[in-house]
Design a protein that fits this description.
Blueprint: E1 4-8, H1 13-24, E2 30-33, H2 38-47, E3 56-59, E4 62-65, H3 67-75, H4 79-83
Helix pairs in contact: 1-3
């Protein structure tokens, strides 16, 4: 099973949707809430090569991007192979 990390903030509809997509696939993920934590936010920005919006999603340390990127990846059939 893939190792998935998703950086989020509470009440973020894009974060909620991205988590829902992953849950629908039966994927387990580590959620990192960056709300109010400057160090975690900087970690996210560094890992994502400058991505500062949430969510930022990583599968096996590969940066997938945000919610729209995850949804597009799923629509073209690229998500399932990464989750195995």
């Amino acid at each position: 099973m893939a190792s998935i990390t998703i950086y989020t903030k509470p009440y973020c509809p894009y974060c909620t949707h991205a988590k829902h997509v992953l849950q629908q696939k039966g994927a387990k993920f580590k959620e990192v809430n960056i709300q109010g934590d400057a160090a975690l936010r900087q970690e996210m920005i560094k890992r994502s090569n400058g991505g500062y919006t949430v969510p930022q999603i990583f599968i096996d340390n590969k940066h997938i991007g945000g919610c729209d990127d995850l949804v597009a990846l799923n629509a073209r059939g690229g998500l399932d192979p990464l989750l195995k």
